Amino acid sequence: MIRFENVRKAYDDGYVALKHVDIEFKENELTVLIGPSGCGKTTLMKLINRLNDPSEGRVLIRGRDISKTNAVELRRSIGYVIQNIGLFPHMTIADNVSVVPRLRKWDRDRINKRVDELLRLVNLDPETYRSRYPSELSGGQQQRIGIIRALAAEPELILLDEPFSALDPISREQLQDELVRLQQELKQTIVFVTHDMDEALKIADTIVLMKEGEVVQMGRPEQILRHPSNDFVKSFIGEKRLQVETPDEPYTVEEAMTENTVTAYPTRGLAEAIKLMKKRRVDSLIIVDRSSKLLGYASIFRVLDRYREEHATLADVMRPFLHFVEAGSPLTTAITLMNEQELPYIPVTKGESFVGLITKGSIVRHLAEVYTPPEIDPELEGIAADESEINDNLQEEKGDEE
After folding, report:
1. In sequence order, what DSSP letters do the residues of 73-103 get, joined into one string?
2. 269 and 203 in a common domain
């Protein structure tokens, strides 16, 4: 839909912002321009609505050279959202949203209907919000208004220049989800500038990675993660993101297993077993002998089935494990086995000794640690603190087996 042909942009002071860029943005896709500060991504975007004009080359929209179109009319046909939103403080939300439709001479009924429709689209009740002023809205709500204002006149494409960078992490996450939902629902062509790789990977259909006025790599997020074109791309993506996709060595089961497993000896009575399961909030026990040899497992259902037998023990109800993995095995071996056999968990052994358990939850926690960048989200810190407290409690209760 948008085509750059040998586009170069140089300023009067001699600075070259873009160096002979040849690129095409597909229709109905969300394309993200990303790169370090000064790489030319915002300059490239501004050429699309003629806030900049190229020094050389052409920019075409649907095959039409935009240098031959009226700049004002072009801009009115393109939605544009900037970081600071730019809502008019003296105008109501309804008036802000309807600015371009009014300039394009829409009738009042059509404008009012469109305003209400767009407010509902971003989960803002028209009755509540259409008469409010920007200062009466939160930052996230103002940004939503900025986005729907860009949608108001039903533009053929939308430009978003780092629209979420000033928001708190929670609002930013919500608006990223909102944007992806809107794009899928409305099938808009969107060009989005960001410096945040996590944001790009989350929302993009296609990523364009730039450096020093040139396109270094362009492709689907998965393609760029798996096949970075050079060391700059690897560095910009970040080793942690790449590590998950192409680790130098496979992760082992020990890295993902939980050691806080509820075990019991086979001599335990069934009433004791039920009490232990209730206390530790589990529905099965791993049965080991006093030398930690893995013997099997006992589910709550089998325990209850023979509960009335006063002299029955866990040895009478336990079942042997048909599947287990040896310590040092690749984590992928355990995941494949759990998936193929539809297992909720799988024990890890060292020789005959039980050393831990791989569960779906332990795998998720391991992957979360691998994926989490160095800058920890405050919300995740709270979750980690809660889990740390739970683990401390489990360690205190571990003496129950002695």
Report:
1. HHHHTEEEEETT----TTS-HHHHHTHHHHH
2. no
